[in-house]
């Protein structure tokens, strides 16, 4: 199994919306990918409430059957549309992809 975790800091204002509105939109659009991406086993999106200097604003946690499924996700048209939106509203991005053996981390 492959776990794909991405954290974004968002711009204070982008696409006519403030950071909070864009965070909700990004969350909604990412969660709408559930069931549309072959090989995606799980997806969870959270919005930070701590608002510290070291916090990201939005986090994506997702699981895939394999590296090949993750690779296919990256180029899937539904993901490409969300990626375009996120690219417009984010200021920073941090990413971790890693493999596990079933449920054992």
Give a verbal description of the structure.
33% of the residues lie in helices and 36% in strands. The protein has 105 residues and is α+β, with helices and mostly antiparallel strands. The chain has a single domain (2-62, 71-99), classed as Alpha-Beta Plaits (2-Layer Sandwich). Strands 4-5-1-6 form a 4-stranded antiparallel β-sheet. Strand 2 and strand 3 form a beta hairpin. The N and C termini lie close together (10 Å).
The CATH class = Alpha Beta
Regions with pLDDT < 50 over 5+ consecutive residues? none
- Stated plainly, the CATH topology is called Alpha-Beta Plaits
Classify the beta-strand content into a percent band.
35-45%
Q: Report Rg.
A: 14 Å
Number of domains: 1
Silhouette: globular
CATH architecture: 2-Layer Sandwich
Structural class: alpha+beta
Q: What's the average pLDDT?
A: 95
Major sheet attributes? 4 strands, antiparallel
Compute the separation of the termini in Å.
10 Å
Spatial strand sequence of the major β-sheet: 4-5-1-6
Q: H/E series, N to C?
A: EEEHEEHHE
* Beta-strand segment tally: 6
- Quickly count the helices: 3
- Helix percent band: 25-40%
Defining traits:
33% helix; alpha+beta
């Amino acid at each position: 199994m492959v776990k794909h975790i991405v954290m974004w800091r968002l711009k204070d204002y982008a696409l006519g919306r403030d950071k909070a509105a864009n965070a909700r939109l990004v969350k909604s659009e990412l969660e709408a990918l559930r069931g549309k991406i072959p090989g995606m086993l799980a997806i969870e999106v959270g919005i930070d409430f701590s608002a510290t200097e070291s916090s990201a604003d939005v986090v994506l946690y997702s699981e895939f059957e394999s590296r090949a499924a993750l690779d296919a996700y990256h180029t899937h048209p539904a993901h490409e549309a969300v990626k375009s939106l996120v690219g417009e509203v984010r200021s920073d991005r941090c990413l971790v992809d890693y493999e596990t053996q079933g449920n054992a981390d």
